[in-house]
Amino acid sequence: RFEFGTTANGLGGVGSCVEMDDAVVAMEATAKQVNFGFVRNVSDSLIDAKLPRVLHAPWATITYKRCGLRTSYNGALATWAVIAG
Fold it and tell me: Looking at residue 31, what is its pLDDT?
């Protein structure tokens, strides 16, 4: 289990963001062979594991603090495209 996506836990090899809540839904849907998909906003950036642990939480929130509502724009557009398509 991980609290943050860091370069140490290998998440950087598959993307630069992590969404843990949807992962639980995905595991259950897969186990029950239910098709699923997720559209999320950009929010949690990958954390360099070389940073001191005390900086992980502040780094995890920097995207929200710097971009605020704009972190939801791409998710809203992608949701509209999925529904419209």
Answer: 93
